[in-house]
Amino acid sequence: MAPTPPSPPEKLPLSRGQIVLRVTGGVLLTVCALMVVLGATIFVERLNGLQFILYWTWCLLLTCAAIVIALWDMLLVRRISRRTHRELFQREFMRDDLGKKSRKHQDR
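Now predict its structure.
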């Protein structure tokens, strides 16, 4: 009989703030991609001078905003992961009965 594969680790639920950040970041990235495609194909002849500069500046600013949101989301994920690891460590290794068991084991 073949051994059963390990079950996938539980995923932490996303907070409302993380969902908002991810949706906002996805929308910004979609708008940026659309602006790049339109600016390189359809609007290439229409964008001249100041219009050209403003269009691509807006595209750059939206891209920077998407990067900032992605970094913010990454920091939230790291903070939640650290907190979860800390709580798990305290729950598993800082129990009173574990200390008693280890003392009994050392006395033998």
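Residues 16-99 form one domain.
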